[in-house]
Amino acid sequence: MASPWILQWLLVVLALCQLGSSETALPNRIDVNTRWDLARSPYIATTDVIIPESVTVTVDPGVEIRLAAQRRLQVFGTISAKGTATQRITMTKVSPSADPGYVVPKALRLVHGFTYEVRDGWAQGFYKNRWRNICSRNRDWSKIDCRVACRELGFSDGNFTLLSVAENYTTGIVYTAPACHGNESSIFDCPGARDIEMGWDVCHIQELVGLYCWGANMDKFKDHWWGIEMYNATRQLQSLHTPNTQMNRSRSEFEFVDIMYAGVNTTLHNVAAFSASPYPPFLLNMRFMHNAFDAINLTQIKGPVRIWDSEFANNRGHGFHVQTAVGMVDLRRVRSHDNGGDGGVVRMMDYHWQEIEEEITQSDTVRLCWDDPSTQSPRFPFLIEAKGRVPSTIDVNICQKTVQTDYLGQLLTVSMLEAELDPEAYALIRIYDQMSSNLQVAFWNVSMRNDTKPPKPFIYQGVVSRRQMLRIEMTWVKSTRLTRCTTFEPCVRVILQVSVDNGRKMSELSVSESDFSSNVQRGLTVANPWTYVVVRESTFRANLFDAGLKIVNGSTDVFVNRTNFLGNERSGLNISTASGLRVVNASSFQYQQGFGMDVWHQYENQTRFGTTGYPRQTEVFTSNFSWNSEAAARFYNSCDTHNIVVNNSDFRQNQR
């Protein structure tokens, strides 16, 4: 009879064998519809896993997918990964660990970069309890110095550059020569750190230290997998917020999924953990944590973006980075905190529509000056191409189109997305509300600007109807001696987007019930908006650079309601746009290390202009401004008319 210890040993061996046999190796390519079920979990990928266009992979709740270092899941077809609240799906590295391994750096950062990425920009150091600009009296740091700094930031190497002249927003530091040996873990561990000078004006009117970093620091990210890529994946038509609103989105589904320890590709560079273009899937109840760069990067998006009930935490880059050509970004109950960049970035991009692309809505192309002048109850949103009809012997051409919806109570929003123009031509676009005594709601003079190189046409902020019918009229004028234009043959081409919503203007970005906190840079950056940005019932707390929420460039109306701004660096809310109506209601601005609210009118490098006849206006109602280290609210850089209305608001213990 076998002794008890032998029986115990046999039971342990049997259990280990059963555990090992439960692992399932994934092939490089999935060629048939497949289900990854819980019984065979975890699934191990030692190579890239490709899901072709015609294939659907279904992932059961509770499944764990582990990918080897620098390997990715490429989706050209469809993946349905729908976990549950109690059985989440996990996508992680091959050897998951409770130890995150890499901690987001809190002593050095790069800001104001050219690429909206965390890999380049001004160097700022956390020195004596504050983030401070770094200058070097115009001396270059050595290659070893740059490498130490970039490795501290999670990259492998980098170059030095001198960037913009400093202004004294806060006390700076002079760090002339770090003189690093190369084995330091921080730039502030180098011998030269003993000679750092600090003072209010030590960097004034000096160029600042700038860095451009590249490659992944493999001491910190050696086991990280690549991520999920979805480029030109299978799409489907999706009904949205109204019965007559439909857009394409990815057929794939992600719900209750954790994506962790991704972000390093085969060339050992930092990349996003989840990338998609041009039609992303809806992301519901997601978690993105401990990734080596941005958690999400959505580029050249032409469909709706929906991120609901999701968390972004401890990612090296931004929590999410969305670049959209059509707007329609909806963030609900998002928590983004402790990321190395912004909690999130949403950019309305200047996309060149080479031709009207029917896959946006799968509806007929609408062309002003070419098609029937009436478009009744179409599927929204759709694009209008207002294009000169050449050859033409007429110097002044007028064409128009009526657009309406049959749904009572809906309003039409018209946004200008792009304009192309011959130097010897211009266009005047007028938009009238047909059901309000022909009330003119927009007058856009599309002519060449003289403040850009090369010259660009004026592009204007979008407008909304008063009721459910609009008439769009374009007058385009060319040189008298030409039947067609020489530089740009059609003379004029303007792309308009028409969308609908129930009783209100259609927003390109809506944020609700969300929390952006303790990010190394801003809580949320919104860049180049064109019509309407809405933020409701959200919190921006203790974000460490520039603003809790920054809306920059472009021209837009902004509505902020029941939102809290607490303890952010420099300002709680910063609106730096060319024009628009800003309404702040029932919101709180407390304990900012700077201004509670900062409204700045941008005159240089404008991407978009306010609609003629609509003055800049800021309205603040029933809000609280308390214990901010600068003024409660600042309105500045406005040489034009700016109407300011402040009612029923509380101001106390602000420092100015």
TrEMBL record:
PANTHER family: DELETED IN MALIGNANT BRAIN TUMORS 1 PROTEIN (PTHR47653:SF1), PROTEIN BARK BEETLE (PTHR47653). Keywords: Disulfide bond, Glycoprotein, Repeat, Signal. This is SRCR domain-containing protein. Disulfide bonds join C180-C190. Residues 108-214 form the SRCR domain. Residues 1-22 form the signal peptide. GO terms for cellular component: membrane. InterPro entries: Pectin_lyas_fold (IPR012334), Pectin_lyase_fold/virulence (IPR011050), SJ_maturation_regulator (IPR053243), SRCR (IPR001190), SRCR-like_dom_sf (IPR036772). It comes from the Eukaryota. One of its GO terms (biological process) is cell-cell junction maintenance.
